[in-house]
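Hi D.,

Good news: the full-assembly prediction came through. Inputs first.
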Amino acid sequence: MDSLYVKQLDEVIVTATRSERKLSNVAVPAQMISVKTIRQSGSVRLNDILQEQTGLFITSGSSSNSPGGGVFGNGVQIQGLSPDYTMILIDGEPVIGREGGVLDLTRIAVGDIKKIEIVKGPSSSLYGSEAMGGVVNIITQQPQKDRISAGLRYGRFNALDANLTASLKKQKWGLQVFGNRNSSNGFDLDKNIPGNTVDAFSNYTVQARSVYQLSAKTKLNLSGRYFTGSQNNFYPVTENGPGSSINVSGYSKTRDISLNPALIHQFSTGLSSSLRFYFSRYHYEQSLSKESDHSLYYYDLFQQNFFKAEDQTDWKWQKNNFLSAGGGIAADVLNTNRYNARKSDALRYLFVQNEWRAAGDLTIIAGARYDDNTAYRSRLSPKLALSYKPGNNLRINISYGSGFKAPDFRQQYLNFTNDAAGGYLIYGASEITAQQLLEQQRQGLLSSVLPSAYKISLLKPEISRGLNIDLHYEVSPRLSFSANIFRNDINNLIQYEIVAYRSNDAPVYSYFNINRAYTEGVEPQFQFLINKKIMLQGGYQFLITADKDVLKEIKAGDLYARKLNSNQVYKIKRSDYAGLPNRSAHMANLKLFYEDDKSGWSGSFRAIYRSRWGTTDKDGNGIINRSDEFASGSLMLNFSVIKKIRDLNFQAGIDNLLNYRDPLNLPDQPGIQPYISVFYSFTKNHKKEHL
Amino acid sequence: MKSTRFFLITLALSAGSLLFFSSCKKEDSSPNNVAKVDTAVLSVNFSANSPFAFFSFKKGGTVSNSDSASNKWDFGLRLTTFIVNSNASGPGNAGVILQNGILDDITSIPASGYAYDTAAGHPAIVDGSWYNYDMNTHSFLPKPGKVFIFRTADDHYAKMEILEATYAPFTGPVPTIINYKLRFLYQPNSSSSFK
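Then the structure:
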């Protein structure tokens, strides 16, 4: 029993260094979520479990009451950096298909996850673009001895989640197949609006993984994943102004497929190499017709194909020196009706990292990655990390790294007129020039071209530099503390600006590298084993974020605000400015886990708090400063109880016990959600095998 | 009963005349201190092609578009485009300075430095400099702390801020009228002091 909780630091993590290391030996802020925690928390999708972790903030998807709505989905913020800057990996390979920069975590089922590894802070030196805020790596189950398991969960709103896993393992090969079906009737938070807030949906996931030992030194892995989800949409749109809404209906479909063969060869004890190929395809489609005459109202198609070939060689070239080096090529092809043609992008990259165990108590890691791209400027991402153990109970990690995010296709190539919302037009920065806008003005398509149009140019990657100081202190085998202090400076942030007005007076936007921002904060955590059966965990994040140009304006006394009711204007002080929107200054969690093997009872009680967070500017100064510009803070209480009887686990739980709701800012939060589930696991009883 | 009411009316009238005279007296003793805080709503076409809506500080309200060739107006607004009555835009002598600050705190205003429209499409007030547009709600939010200092078409002075921009109810796909709520002080004599 005690081994389940205490030994986490002995567990192996791969995400931090791209090779297997003990969690207690990595020099960057890293954490791991075990399958046990996932199960005890009753989690179904990736967002369920991530939102209970210290310092992670799950952004809310928009409601399905708007075209394209409901698709931006739930993304994850790490260290105050938006979901756009967080990389999501499954077994080390990036999940593709971001809508509006957000990768929807609800696409990922957690039913066959072995563990989730989270590395915070810039990790572009290993993973390239997008790994600016951090990396979430989902490690799926390896083929185990002949085993079959099945789970069924039923919850409020007819929410159904069914899992089936089959695992086979022979002398030379192993196979694991996982299937999941997830569906819900959706829910309605506002009866005055026709249709549901979230419409009914269903989705399926199939994952398979096989390992084949070709020879004593060579292994072939092949894994694949298929996801398909669909939703029937029905909602009103205010096409003809307030009070004259029409109803539209249709469907949206999401599909992703990926295939990942890998060949791993051990040349000698200290030298191994892996060759990996990865192909992934993402498809999203939404079609809406008017209820009145069934004419097409809106159609959106988004297809992304991603291919990557990569080799990584790990070499222990000296007793205390571990070298990882590699390189790869990647291609990204996009086809969407939002762009004027099929767009593609090719990438070549090299990375190298050396880990030097300088002494028993000191480890130094230095590394860099070079990305050379066809569509934007190339980028070198260095990293330096140091881990020092002054005593047996104390460990200090200091790491400094650079991260970047390539301008995405949308920012480069978007050519999109939103007829559903006022007819505004957005051009990617590579799609338009000031001269072309002036030409359009001459043709009478535009009524005016603004000075900002002259700044349109090839976008640069957004970059960050991050410093992390990480302290771990083990008071006793039962009680441990850790604290992470972080600071991220982000430059070249890409944002849209109005560049012209159309002749119908709707604005025309394009993208620019304009903003500079920072995030900084502290993340203390503790873990306390009250006794052999009860574990208490707690974490807190204090976060400060700001747009640096806003700070400059405040310092110069050039930024003003308007009082809520009187409209009275006053000068903004630093303390009035709440930083970047969609961030809570305070987030905290307290979790209690219980497990008694003898009686078969286990369970958990989790409290998750986040303070108020900024939503939209209302007084015209473009920043969050006034009380009506915030969504109120929230406290979520979740609990779950499991009773194990032989091979069967019965679980009952309630998520969001306090029935917290905020239809305006959190349209995908339905309120209290009770559920029951049963999980069956059968392992064929035979002698232990070793592969 | 009747007599009481009569008495009250007399009292009210005399009080009113007292107030009237006292305010006249005040005007006479300090001629600079007459600029009063006023508000007005300027209804502007939500279109870049329709006629401008004209505003006069002296009148404290809208001026008919048929007076466009006169100096009866000080500035015009269409959607979010300003014109100022002088040079390229009109026969008057108007000019404008857009500066950061709090309207009530600006007591003396410059004698020079007033910008004017040099040509069509080159307005004194750059579009986008005084508001934020919210792509999600499609609303124009006038920036707080933007003070418009005007030399009027007939060489008087005024200072103004825009409190809000709201759409009049509309039935088409886009709004037709945008209502700007203005707050301003006008100096009816030629002084440039707003003490």
